[in-house]
Every structure is written in C-alpha cells, then in structure tokens.
Amino acid sequence: MPEAGIWRTCNVCKRPIAYGAVYYRCSVSTCNKKRVTFVFCSPDCWDAHLPDQNHRNPLCFEEHAPSVANG
Ligand SMILES: [Zn+2]
Ligand SMILES: [Zn+2]
Fold first, then answer.
1. Is residue 1 one of the residues assigned to a domain?
2. What is the total count of domains within the chain?
3. What would the pLDDT profile of 1-18 be if each residue is shown by its tens digit?
C-alpha cells in the first residue's frame, strides 16, 4: 500500500507529505480554512503559490504533520 503513511499532498507539486514529516503552510487566513488548507512540501512550493493568491504580506511557517497514530 504505497499510500500508507501519507498525510496530505503538496498543493503545488502534489508530492506526498508523510505523517510526522515537516511541511510548510501559508500564514494567510484564506489558506488555512478548515475545508481548504494549503500545505506545501517545501518553501519553494509555497513561494510558487503566491502569485495565484495575491497575498499582501505572506509568511511561510514550518510545521510538523501529525503522527500516524492519530489516524
Ligand atoms: Zn511541493
Ligand atoms: Zn497562501
């Protein structure tokens, strides 16, 4: 099962982000809604999403994906 252990996929390049892995998210509130949370595998992918969104003062936050134990 290749998809086991994958938490989400990067919104830009679609690479998988594993449970417990470091990922990046956008500081802007519209990118952190419950239904549509943007997550990125790297700061480069976060950077690539900026022109699409027209953010005014965006920041990139480093986060950790939840551990697999949470399902
Ligand atoms: Zn990516
Ligand atoms: Zn954003």
1. no
2. 1
3. 456 789 999 999 999 999
